[in-house]
Amino acid sequence: MALPPLLVEADAQAVADQVAARLLEALACGRTLGLATGRTMEPVYRAFVARLKGLPSMERQRLISGWSSFNLDEYVGLGSGDPQSFAAFMQLHLGQPLDLPLGCLRLPDGRASDPEAEAGRYARSLQAAGGIGLQLLGLGSNGHVGFNEPPCQPEARCRCLSLSPSTRQQNAGAFGGHPQAVPTQAITLGLSEILAAEALLLVVTGAEKAEILRRSLQEPPCPEVPASWLQGHPNLQVIADRSAASTLLLS
Ligand code: GLP
Question: Which regions of the chain are under pLDDT 70?
Answer without folding.
Answer: 1, 251
